[in-house]
Amino acid sequence: MRIAQIAxxxxxxxxxxxxxxxxxxxxxxxxxxxxxxxxxxxxxxxSVTSARLHAAWPRSLRLDPNIRDVIAPHMLMLEEVRRQAExxxxxxxxxxxxxxxxxxRQQVPFVTTLHGRLDLPELQSLFNAxxxxxxxxxxxxxxxxxxxxxxxxxxxHGVPERSLASRPPATRTYLAFLGRMAxxxxxxxxxxxxxxxxxxxxxxxxxxxxxxxxxxxxxxxMLDSPGVEMIGxxxxxxxxxxxxxxxxxxxxxxxxxxxxxxxxxxxSHGTPVIVFNRGSAPEVIEDGLTxxxxxxxxxxxxxxTGLDQLDHGAVRARFEQRFTAxxxxxxxxxxxxxxxxxxxxxxxxxxxxxxxxxxxxxxxxA
Amino acid sequence: MRIAQIAxxxxxxxxxxxxxxxxxxxxxxxxxxxxxxxxxxxxxxxSVTSARLHAAWPRSLRLDPNIRDVIAPHMLMLEEVRRQAExxxxxxxxxxxxxxxxxxRQQVPFVTTLHGRLDLPELQSLFNAxxxxxxxxxxxxxxxxxxxxxxxxxxxHGVPERSLASRPPATRTYLAFLGRMAxxxxxxxxxxxxxxxxxxxxxxxxxxxxxxxxxxxxxxxMLDSPGVEMIGxxxxxxxxxxxxxxxxxxxxxxxxxxxxxxxxxxxSHGTPVIVFNRGSAPEVIEDGLTxxxxxxxxxxxxxxTGLDQLDHGAVRARFEQRFTAxxxxxxxxxxxxxxxxxxxxxxxxxxxxxxxxxxxxxxxxA
Lengths: 366, 366
Hints:
Chain A is an alpha/beta fold. Chain A is 36% helix and 18% strand.
């Protein structure tokens, strides 16, 4: 298929450091290319991709000090996509509701993955007005707030499979916290849980401007606790060592997590996850198999003592079965084909039998 | 004509306190109704208008603590306008470039007044992409940054004429500063100018969150100076007394002011304006007649000593000739008719001869 991926411009695709949406778009784009599709990626010019890159803005907005109005570059990109729309079989947006008004009035099939939380009150009337626009949720829990929206699929995220064979078996010595330094992510709870268990905690987290007050008032005083180590924001290169050295990842979240990419990243390294039962948690983690789903701090502390029961190989195996980027790409292909069924015969582009097989399989699993 | 006015949702129309764009939309809407047109105002539900109000959001966003995403309500409003577009002869947007992509692909004539500064680098490529979309500037100076845009008119702002007869002649005893407490507006320069002249200064200004640091560090220490009085943010009710009691309004601006509504408000009270030669200043103030245009603080101080030469009655007269809301409405009507020339015969709606006359006159002055 001729597929357009339209990413946010805030971060490069993939992002240099933090940036969940742009990273998922990167994984998806690379897999679609690997599957033989003709993909154009609309993204910032510092993106790196094996697809055709349409640089909708020279560099990612977060790194561009001249940018005051981050909406203008996105509006320009939407217009550029609109003008080229007929060159694609399907348009896949990752820009919330921004494309709805313009693209619901043209003929090329389009779909939008909703990457954020959907329980904001201002989204209610907006989605009342756009009931017929096809959208994809990243968990079933995420959908609950917007029953009026036209969800055509839930496509859980995936990350690249990558062989683990080259790495030595990890010595797992600490609990890990990885994410934004925000109250809803619960770094304070993670510190209390680790201290109660007497196990060291390593915190890899970025501090956003919006969270600086919280960090200074709540977290910084707790960093003096014995066994608590703050290692700052880490990139993709440092994640494997960080995650594979942990006995478990702690996710003491207090918000409706739409997906929680870090959970499957931990699983990809055989690392189980202890997660509060919020949002997507029970759709991602299988209690007693790939981690533990708990209701509060006390239960999380109890869960840590049960980590011995879990098998790291089984955690990795479930990751391979459920959360690879390849599986995500196949799910999306099935979604595209459902929206653009006339593209199914695959006559438009050369393709080997393996790709036809994949598409057939995708179709079956949709 | 059947006219849609589409206002920002940040403030009510008119705003309760500060909010230039929404206030201008209010003046324009009321005048168009008074001229016999059928006007629908798309605005927040706490707006007050004699037009038909389409409440695109229950209340103005600045006063709604539940709103996190201010873009969603605007996107919803744009969609609602799009669905009703055929019910209007012309659509008049006050939402920057936001309507361009959707409305350049439908048939009803539309025009956008650009209320802000246009010299942001991110606007260049955006307006390269939308060269054919008709826009209105509020001064000729404002246009300079975007020569590629399709400016169909410059329509200077206007404010209601209102009789001055009922007010006693003002005793003018101080210099006035009215606006945002921001470095580019120059409250620090105003204080130095007033002190050098030995004339009291009254400051009516709001302090935005973004300007709090500047206020605390630069302005607050200067407020102890003798003769300097800070009276806070004032509403429409307090403005006449504030402006008509001043010997002059000080506008020591250091930015490309797109228009500067407060200048014509001062003029409407016969109050001259001493303004730095930036942006729209020489298009609004006539040097030696309605005020003085100066290059720096030293020249502003010299200008204060020349205020005796100016005649308050002449200042008011020039206001009546050039900057009433009625004149603004007539300018816009001429613009609408140029975009929708088939609406000229006025057969669609009942109208008396006076309205036909007005339209004819507008046509001549366009």
